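Aim 2 progress update. The chain analyzed this quarter is reproduced below.
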Amino acid sequence: MSKYISTGGRRNVPNGPTSATCGGLVFWFFALALACVAAAAPQDESPDAGPDSADKPAEFDPSSTPPVTVDGSWALLKPHGSGFQTSIPGPARHVPKTLNPLPDMEVKVDMYLVHTNGGEVAFVVGWHDVQEMPESGEKRKEILDGGVKGAMLNVLGKMTSHEHIDIAGNPGRDFSYTGNRNGRDIAGRSHLVLVGRRVFQLSIIRVATVAVDEAVAEKFFSSFELTGDQE
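Predicted structure tokens:
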């Protein structure tokens, strides 16, 4: 495996945290992604749109709403020096961010987003580096589990599935969830993969009443590959 080094400005922190910091970083990663979903998705009609709308919220009938599909316009996302490539359903928007999980720490987060279905679904790919190389399986477990916990705290949600995965010998997590953000019910599925010091994050985040075709989701997650050119 290549030797991975960190990117972006960072300061060394004695006894730097692992799971706590990663949980905080994934928390803000999801905050950014969810904010983008909220900004792009059309808002619900106002309560006075109909005489009974305030008393009778519309019920979701899955059979009446076809799952989101993709028209074939998949693109290969391979950012220079990122160490990965993956397929994503359309041109992606780059959203870089520098976070400060601790007063003496700066961490660069890179995120790419594609919105579909009028902004109600977001395909998100991102990554950041943890402060120290996790040398043991226990430390890697702490980072990944801390990331899952941070994600769930962000959406105040309920986990509906959770399993350990392996990508080319690197540990990861696959988890699905429901939750609420700014009064809107959401649902999603995410992968976290730890490669050296780098945590890769892939997510499909959607308005809860919108389904995503299973074949589309599987293509998105399964297309992720490591390229070995990480900087």
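The chain is about 20% helix and 35% strand. The CA atoms of residues 104 and 209 lie 41 Å apart. These observations will guide the mutagenesis experiments scheduled for the next reporting period.
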